[in-house]
Specification:
Layout (H helix, E strand, L loop, with lengths): L3 H7 L3 E3 L2 E3 L23 H23 L4 H15 L11 H21 L4 H21 L2 H10 L5 E2 L2 H6 L1 H4 L16 E5 L4 H5 L4 E3 L2 E5 L3 H23 L10 H7 L31 H13 L4 H14 L3 H11 L5 H15 L14 H6 L12 H4 L2 H10 L4 H12 L3 H16 L31 H24 L7 H5 L29
Length: 537
Amino acid sequence: MFTQADKKNSRKQKLVSGARISYNDVPYPTRLNFYMSPPSLEISIEEFEQFALDRMQVLTTLLNAQVRNMTSEQLDKNVDAAIRKYMPMHKNTSGIPQNQLMDERRKDHVSHFILRLAYSRSQELRSWFLRAECALFRYRFEKEILSDQLEFLEQQNLSWKKVSDDDKSLLKEKLLPLIKPHNNTNLDGVTYFEVDFERVTGLVGRRQVYVQGGKAYVPLADQVVLVLDEFKERLAHALEVTGKILPRMEEDDRLMPVLNNINKQYLGREFTTSAIAGEIQAQDVDNLKVHMPLCMEHLHNELRREKHTRHGGRMQYGLFLKGIGLSLEQALIFWQMAFEKLTPDQFNKQYAYNIRHSYGMEGKRTDYTPFSCRHIIQNNAPGPGDHHGCPFRHFSAPNLRATLAAHHVDDFDTEDIMSLVQGRHFQIACTRYYEVTRARMLDIATENLKGGGINGGQGNTGMVASQELIEHPNQFFEQSYLLMQSKESSASIAKSGNGDFMDGQAQSTLQPTVKGQYTYKKSGVQTSSHSNLDMEL
């Protein structure tokens, strides 16, 4: 519990953009929020979906950075960039107008509740959302200034007893050794809370707190453990409640289409307007297999072996080839040559229409886009005799291990990839596969991937580990193709002795990292690709 003096100090008026305001007069006094009450305001359907997709970008960036074991500097750089772009949240001391601060925090509040609705439909979705929101809350809490942390904690009416100065004096000899740095000689300015030791078993196990009479004395520096536990407990309960009442909204034809598709949205490039390899010919496809992701390489190999593939495989592989530059004319040639057991008349009657349809030349004339990783992972799982899908998601463990071994992935990297697959981080597993196989192509040691390059790690040209998550098969292809092009160009330059003939624009075309751009899509619009989220489903 807080003393009257603490409450008085925490309620002091604070300066925001030159005007003094009382924390009791604004709905969002700090950037922290337990999201206990739903927002009461009206927003458009467009804002409803936009807010949700923007928050997804931030959550995904944070989770992917954590799973990939980035350094704290790399994580901060990636997450801060996503926050600035999609969901900025300025400090009270930033000097921006108060109404802008409130708008930012209102968007945060609204977007949380939208995603809470969208992710309460199943236990798997709830688990992902809970993990993501806890990660974001912790990140924000640790970045918040001390005064706003205390203000936030006071507002929550948490059942933690604040240790008085008199009690701290009595426990001084026990608490001092736990303070960092250890050369502190007093407890002045150190806030402690008394809680049941069962709530902080992790801190107890690491001997970071003093325990007496079943109570643990937790310093404010370790308060994030308590706060996060409280946040997680409340949100988990809220998600269970939301999941039970969500069926009542089934008849709402405005929101349900949006909610049902939010977690399926693909937010990156569509790969329809440009092809990095130019317009390719049917006979070029075999030579380009080296740049294909595992899913497309598998489809290609099975197509060559069986001289046929089923509808799911034709759609997945056909749209991928369309995205890398295979025109409709060349696609018809390619598939007719691949289905060599059929006569031209049989092929035209059974398959030509569907190929023209996928290029927008038949039926509703929808120009279909290549499937994203999210779409492949979540939709239309392969059955017996099918070869489409994601190997990291749909292959058995022995089959996947054998496939990795066939691609000369060593035991260490195989275990790394299999661990990611077991954790249901399928896209990150594919990203890791990309890194280790491209490193082998460039004869770079795997341990030098982070920041490694073909020019001794100098510059960006030839970068293998770009920290970019593979979220689309065509992205995998483009990055690999550009990587090999940059290697060949560098070799050619070295051989000729002329390293200055390329201008900046030409050099930029050889960058192996192809960054996706955020693409807003309204619900109901025909899309064949659905998300850059590694949802661990």
